[in-house]
Design goal:
about 210 residues; alpha+beta; GTP Cyclohydrolase I, Chain A, domain 1; GTP Cyclohydrolase I, domain 2; 2 domains; 9 helices; about 45% helix
Length: about 210
């Protein structure tokens, strides 16, 4: 990886590591929310709720506190291989930044190596890293693609994300069957119709409905 790519990745890492979860403030906020709902925070069923919610957000938003470079740096390998590498059906869970409600689904990530590959388990970890924070599906899709591109400098990267959003299912339009699909195509996947079609054919083959 070139020096400029490392610089970009470390800038991402340093920015995220500056953020931390303030559990005490979350607990205070939950108490105020419960009161605003007309509830009594001190009643037996709710007395431990603020602490539980703080712990929950610490887990759901762990992407703010992970060093992405350190996470993958020990799993980069020099390999002579120039065919498509694809990891499909990576399940993910995230929080919509507009309503703080979950959205979830699966991601498909592919790249054409340029002398370097990443360990199989690291691609799902990259998806988790970017999904475990307040997100938009469009941004999540692009961040995964850009990160893989900066990390490996491959001939091309393709990411497709399919998601269902509780903010559209539980409230608002209340469309329970609606699915959202977003994509990011870089390098060869963007410039070559045949390459892009090969990727799309691979992820559609045998694909079934999302189950959660």
């Amino acid at each position: 990886m070139g020096e400029e790519n490392y610089k970009k990745l470390y800038e991402i890492s340093e920015l995220l590591m500056e953020n931390d979860i303030d559990e005490a403030s979350i607990e205070d906020a939950v108490i105020q929310l419960l009161k605003a709902f007309g509830e009594e925070p001190s009643r037996p069923g709710l007395i431990r709720t603020p602490g539980r919610v703080a712990q929950m957000y610490k887990e759901l938003l762990m992407g703010y506190r992970i060093d992405p470079v350190a996470m993958v740096n020990d799993a980069l390998f020099e390999v002579t291989y120039d065919e498509m590498v694809l990891v499909r059906d990576i399940e993910f869970y995230s929080l919509c930044e507009h309503h703080l409600l979950p959205f979830m689904g699966r991601a498909h990530v592919a790249y054409f190596p340029r002398g370097k590959v990443i360990g199989l388990s690291k691609i799902p970890r990259v998806v988790d890293f970017f999904s475990r924070r307040l997100q938009l599906q469009e941004r999540l899709t692009r961040q995964v693609a850009d990160f893989i591109n900066e990390l490996l400098d491959p001939h091309g990267v393709a990411v497709v994300v399919e998601g269902i959003h509780l903010c559209a299912m539980m409230r608002g339009v209340q469309k329970h069957e609606a699915r959202m699909t977003t994509s990011a195509m870089l390098g060869a996947f963007r410039t070559s119709i045949a390459t892009r079609q090969e990727f799309l054919d691979n992820i559609s083959r045998g694909a079934g409905p999302m189950k959660f």
